[in-house]
Specification:
Layout: H1 2-12, H2 18-35, H3 44-64, H4 70-88, H5 90-103, H6 110-141, H7 144-166, H8 170-189, H9 194-205, H10 211-234, H11 239-251, H12 258-278, H13 282-304
Helix pairs in contact: 1-8, 1-12, 2-3, 2-6, 3-4, 3-13, 4-6, 5-13, 6-11, 6-12, 7-10, 8-9, 9-12, 10-11
């Protein structure tokens, strides 16, 4: 399910808040890594997962610029999260991957694809809730200079988004999205045929994806982030509820009409994945089963390591 989940996650991925980064961004990346077969070879998932605590810290530090006093505390919290995830969550992922092996052998409906997407989101939500107390405590420790660093990083990411999605012509932007979709799909199925590439292009052309609307939502979330951090400083006793409120407004935007837009993206992604999968040959499905089995084995090994 790499094409659908990868494309959808890219669109709904949140911005810079500590809660977002650890619980919703790197966690989503790690989940996609082991659930969506988004790397090229068996064993690579294990390597990346084992490095995830360090990579998470480096990604966070690039946003926040932790002090020498904050660094060991942040690293301890990240390590504790991944220890919990390895012990408590990976067994559920191995069962999900085994179920995907069976699904890969037959045609599926868009509704079935959405069911799998919802199952992944439930695991992400569980991990997010697990992180809230520690994230609230970390947010309380951020100083004015670190808030400035977050705002600067936001501006940089906005410029990158603009260059990738707002400045190119619609045809160029479509070409770039198609290339990424093909790359993800071929990691699961092997080489796509010309007809399958054309199918993906037609699906992307019909997508409700609107970069201007998505960019506006990014700006709203970023403003919400900065306001949330200010509110936490003013009302530290409410830090956890404020973090949860911010996360809730990421998952369910208060912007009128955005929930329907987000839902339409997911539904289109389900249909896009099902259409591509149902076009695959017996050999491509066998390749997908083999890839998924490799990742199942990786997850079992990861879960068994103590």
């Amino acid at each position: 399910m790499s094409t659908f989940l990868g494309e959808t996650a890219r669109r709904i991925r949140p911005g810079a808040f500590v809660a977002q980064i650890i619980a919703l961004r790197w966690w989503r990346w790690a989940a996609a890594l082991v659930l969506v077969s988004s790397v090229a070879a068996c064993g690579a998932a294990r390597l990346a997962y084992n490095q995830a605590p360090n990579l998470t810290y480096w990604w966070l530090d690039d946003y926040v610029d932790f002090t020498s006093e904050q660094t060991p505390v942040v690293r301890d919290k990240i390590n504790a999260f991944f220890d919990w995830h390895r012990n408590e969550e990976l067994p559920a992922y191995s069962r999900r991957l085994e179920a995907w092996q069976a699904l890969a052998t037959r045609d599926i409906s868009a509704a079935e694809a959405c069911t799998e997407y919802d199952a992944v989101r439930e695991r992400i939500d569980r991990a997010t809730e697990r992180m809230v107390p520690d994230l609230a405590r970390m947010a309380l420790q951020l100083g004015p200079g670190q808030l400035d660093a977050i705002q600067q990083r936001q501006a940089k990411r906005n410029e990158e988004f603009s260059q990738d999605h707002l400045q190119p012509t619609r045809e160029k932007e479509l070409d770039d999205r198609l290339k990424k979709a093909v790359d993800r799909s071929e990691r699961l199925y092997g080489t796509l045929t010309t007809e399958q590439r054309q199918l993906l292009r037609a699906q992307l052309q019909r997508s409700p994806w609107d970069p201007q609307r998505t960019h506006a939502e990014r700006l709203r979330r970023q403003a919400d982030l900065l306001q949330t951090l200010q509110d936490i400083k003013a009302r530290p006793e409410q830090a956890e509820s404020l973090v949860r409120g911010h996360i809730e407004r990421i998952a369910r935007s208060p912007t009128p009409g955005y929930a329907d837009y987000s839902r339409s993206l997911v539904q289109h992604g389900c249909a896009q994945f099902a259409a591509l999968h149902n076009s695959t040959s017996e050999a491509q499905r066998a390749q997908a089963v083999s890839a998924l089995k490799g990742y199942t084995d990786d997850v079992i090994r990861l879960a068994g390591r103590r």
